[in-house]
């Protein structure tokens, strides 16, 4: 008998999504635009507490438009954390700009403020800085925004993984000049695929919506003065998002519970550590991760294999971008020359199943399988 698959993080639907989709069908608002799109923008902006939002086809599209709107052009330097998903950096390449990768710090695994300072010494005028809140843990936003402000460089927050996480009581994604969220399939809420660009500056979100709908000028005939994109979210997709947003708090509570269960279960295993949270913030705990202490004979690969044998999905930590063949020619700035924190986390870490539909029995099996190796 084949075992049931235990997932890393899969979509969790509730039924309300269908109500909004049905409304879209009933009113024939199946095309892009429509009441769900505008409503999702307003509802999400209200949830995170920001002035304006633009609903887009993906988080990646949102990062791309953020770079466009901030005027990033060919040859411009953009600072990007190394320890992140490649989607953070791909839009930098679309614009033929030059990513400079910044190392992580151990406290949160996110962009190291000290390494960011060093990057500014070497490259004094980057066009933008992109910060990421990895696995839902907020970055050191005070330090990062202070450095960006001191150098008059705009911050883009890639909050694709951290919707609902806060730092000093304020939502991640709302600290930068522009913030972005993702509603991809395995994120904390999903629209099957989609994203959102947010800003306190309504001109920025207006520009995003304009560029996302082929940059059509205000003329009856189809006139275009700029190159546009087809990046708008559809009214059907937005309907799923509205239904999901109603359950975001519940998803976060369940993700936190998963983290606490792992934390409690591994408390007596000295060689296992949970991924860090940020004491100044409140993480959504999108994915629970562990690192194995240096010198431990059990490797993340061995844990991955043991879980896989039980049909349990786990995932390596994002491979740092400075180690990726596609970004091999890019510079990488560390806080301290002897050691890359991002590489260390990658080699010693693993993302554990964090699906909110996993049962008590599933959690017990995952924990038993991992502890059995120690
Ligand atoms: C998922 C993700 C993205 C991309 O979002 P999409 O909606 O899949 O395009 C960008 N950055 C990070 C850190 C992500 O995890």
Describe the model:
This protein is of the alpha/beta class and 374 residues long. It has helices at 16-26, 35-48, 59-69, 90-94, 113-122, 141-150, 202-212, 235-245, 248-265, 300-309, 341-348, 360-371; strands spanning 52-56, 77-81, 98-102, 128-132, 155-158, 166-167, 170-171, 178-182, 195-199, 272-274, 281-282, 289-292, 315-316, 332-333, 349-351. The strands form 3 sheets. The protein has an 8-stranded mixed beta sheet, with helices on both faces. The chain has a 4-stranded antiparallel beta sheet with strand order 10-12-15-13. Strands 7-6-11 form a 3-stranded antiparallel beta sheet, with no helix packed on it. Strand 6 (166-167) and strand 7 form a beta hairpin. Helix 1 runs antiparallel to helix 8.
| Rounded Rg | 21 Å
Number of strands: 15
Alpha carbon gap, first and last residue:
28 Å
Present as ligands are: pyridoxal-5'-phosphate
Quick summary:
With 374 residues, the chain is of the alpha/beta class. It is built from twelve helices and 15 strands.
Secondary structure layout:
Elements: H1 16-26, H2 35-48, E1 52-56, H3 59-69, E2 77-81, H4 90-94, E3 98-102, H5 113-122, E4 128-132, H6 141-150, E5 155-158, E6 166-167, E7 170-171, E8 178-182, E9 195-199, H7 202-212, H8 235-245, H9 248-265, E10 272-274, E11 281-282, E12 289-292, H10 300-309, E13 315-316, E14 332-333, H11 341-348, E15 349-351, H12 360-371
Parallel strand pairs: 2-3, 2-4, 3-14, 4-5, 5-8
Antiparallel strand pairs: 1-9, 6-7, 6-11, 8-9, 10-12, 12-15, 13-15
The protein binds pyridoxal-5'-phosphate.
Residues 58-60, 84-85, 87-88, 132, 158, 160-161, 182, 184, 195 line the site of pyridoxal-5'-phosphate.
